[in-house]
Amino acid sequence: DNRFSKTVDLLGHATMTDATRGAPGVSLCASIAAKYPSHVQDATIFISWTWRYGVKKLVEALRNYCFDKGLEMSSTFVWMCFFCNNQFAWLSSASNDGVETFGQTLKRIGKVVCVVDTFHASDAVYFSRLWPIFEVFTAFQSRADIEFVLMSDVEHVLLDASIRQLKEKIVVDVLAAKATNRDDEQKIVSVIKSSPGGAALVNATVAKLFAKLVTGFLLEQ
Fold first, then answer.
1. What is the rounded CA–CA span in Å between residue 102 and residue 207?
2. How high is the pLDDT of residue 166?
């Protein structure tokens, strides 16, 4: 298929040569599969992250996760929206329901790894974005296996922090978090507000899970 040999835009997705015709291109995952079939298989891990991360730090975090868990990177397959969604078709279609689609994907995979940039939840980019918080809460509700991974450059800071500092820093406010797509943001907030316990339960659940990560990390040192 000639779609796989075309140029790549800033999002990293293959595009058609004549964008004026509205051809959506293909997902990056599909492009990789066309040339390297063995590199794309059914995912066993759903990666919760934010597009605002630097690529190098994100890759390092995932590499460290595989090392810590004794996973062979060449045979570990993950689902990431950046790679698996056809971003052009997604952004150009008003009929896409991101909340429902991601929820179905998350539940099907059954395991979520959250890549967090800092243990200071109130300062973290991760917790300032609405999608990641909603993903964690949805994973909790669906009883999926949830794990957090801290980026390596903040682990030494965590070791120097006191328990009191940790408790003060682990603050989550889902209603203050933002999504790039305004429609997504409004829909997620609506779902949260209408669910039992509302935003208060989401905040408490995600903060508790994050505190568990931090405690577990300290106990392993």
1. 22
2. 67
